[in-house]
Amino acid sequence: MWQSSNLSLLSSVQLFLQGLGLLSSPYLPLPACRTFPGDEAWPKEDVWNAFNVSVDGRLIKTIPVGSPCHDPHYNDEACKYVKKNWHQTEMHIAHPSSIMDAVFLNKSCDPFTPRESPCYIGSYVQYAVNVSEPNHIVKTIDFARKHNMRFVVKNTGHDYMGRSTGAGAISVWMHHLKETEWFDSYSSPGYKGPALKVQAGVQGAEVNAEATKHGHLIVAGECPSVGFAGGYIQGGGHSVLSSVLGLAADHTLAFEVITTTGKFVTASPTENQDLYWALSGGGGGTYGVVWSVTVKAHPDMPMTKAQLFFNSDGISRDTYWEAITAYQKIIPSILDTGSFLDSTYDINKFRMDPLIGPNVSAKTISSLLTPWIDKLNYLGINYTLNLTEHAKYVETVADYNNFDIMGYQLGGRLLPRSLFETDQGFLAFMGAARDIVDGGAYVWDIGLRPSSSWEAGRYPNNAVHPEWRYAERMYNPVLFFDDSDPLERIWDDQKRISVVFDQPLKQLSAGGGAYANEADPFALDWKNAFYGKHYDRLLSIKDKWDPDQLLYGTIAVGGDRWEDMEDGRICRTI
């Protein structure tokens, strides 16, 4: 009742200010809320049918992926399949409305709730358009605007920040846009060389496969199923190649974009430069709907991969942490070679899986690991070490599988190189790391140095968070939950991440930044954490290219102009 009254008051204030000519911003017209199912203004069935004809019959009404697990459509065999594959990417990628983060599904038609529980669409979009041509996007945007509906862009649904779904929304599903084009000699004012153009539905593994056919590689993500042209590259995009080639966004040459005003435009260093700048690292799903991206390609190179595993069986807690401390001490020298490290650990197990050294020999990697190995032997810790050399990038990352999804929540911060250059900084980091792990978190600890490939101060002119240019680590606390856990427990865990685990990391980084695709989606300082000093410029670009504010995400630029209400609809804020 308070929310409803508050919104009525908001509307009255807006009308009064508009009457005085004091409110002219394009994002504060009436009505105050997006139209929602059950509202009088929600489109009737005949309107949906007519719209379906206009998009060539490609409109899909959402049937939640968990619906076979609930009455009246219960199907035991289908339900078992859904439960078995709930934590795998493939099922959600192939579904027009499903996403890979259970937190933002809010238990909507959850396959693990009782069969007799109602199957609500809830946080899923109401409808999706299976896009095959630009006009499908234009028509959907026009429909959303005309009916004041929430609008969402989805490719794979690999999104931990809640941008690929939305209660009461209509979405464009980009997944089947799979065309690629190879350029042996792409020419633009700032670059001449090989390049690859990919449509919005192309995934990381497909990017890698296309590049390797031509003897090249692309800066792409570790997870092979991630959509390349969407939130990944638009959010910056880290990679196992980042210490030698920078971030994915550092290699963009051009975007093709459908704007929310219905135009198909090119954004590049010479056309619509502001939009190009924003799309190159300023956050996904915010400024326009990306149809394709063209990126630089680089000659393939040999690589070394190392993996090392041990656990805490038979050793004290202090001994276990001595081993992890010894690992942390060798990381700077490994990063000096242009290598990348991906390690995970909790109170029981440690995994470095993998270390990847582009153009670095196994002999060099072995030498760099020796002080750590000697320490493990001295401590009497049993470990498994694998060290292999590969001729090509795709061979190196061939067993980099899709990560388990759905059952965890993330925090995380970028930690600067300067933190690890003094004994005081290193000890402070180790103290925080141990507190986080002993507090029950699992840690995802990425070692990379995206600035290594650029001369000091000569980074690409893009919207990548400035803190990436000084980063040495991406450090992410993780809390797991069971599929059957109640929402209250899940939200309590998220608060622990925000308050207990992320705050010490924020202090270590002096405020610092975070990777806008893999961090705490409820960070109170999200503007600084995800965009830094670029935020105000990005906001002005958004207002230019999305004047009706159709593109929305809670942590996207301009996200605080909207509020999620209790029933799931979004309403404007002052």
TrEMBL record:
Domain FAD-binding PCMH-type span(s) in chain numbering: 120-300
Key words of the record: Oxidoreductase, Signal
Pfam family, one: FAD_binding_4
InterPro entries: BBE (IPR012951), FAD-bd_PCMH (IPR016166), FAD-bd_PCMH-like_sf (IPR036318), FAD-bd_PCMH_sub2 (IPR016169), FAD-linked_Oxidoreductases_BP (IPR050432), Oxid_FAD_bind_N (IPR006094)
Highest taxon listed in the record's lineage: Eukaryota
Alphabetized GO MF terms: FAD binding; oxidoreductase activity
SUPFAM superfamilies: FAD-binding/transporter-associated domain-like
Gene3D superfamilies: 3.30.465.10
Secretion signal, residue range per the UniProt entry: 1-21
Family: Belongs to the oxygen-dependent FAD-linked oxidoreductase family.
Protein name: FAD binding domain protein
Lineage start: Eukaryota, Fungi, Dikarya, Basidiomycota, Agaricomycotina
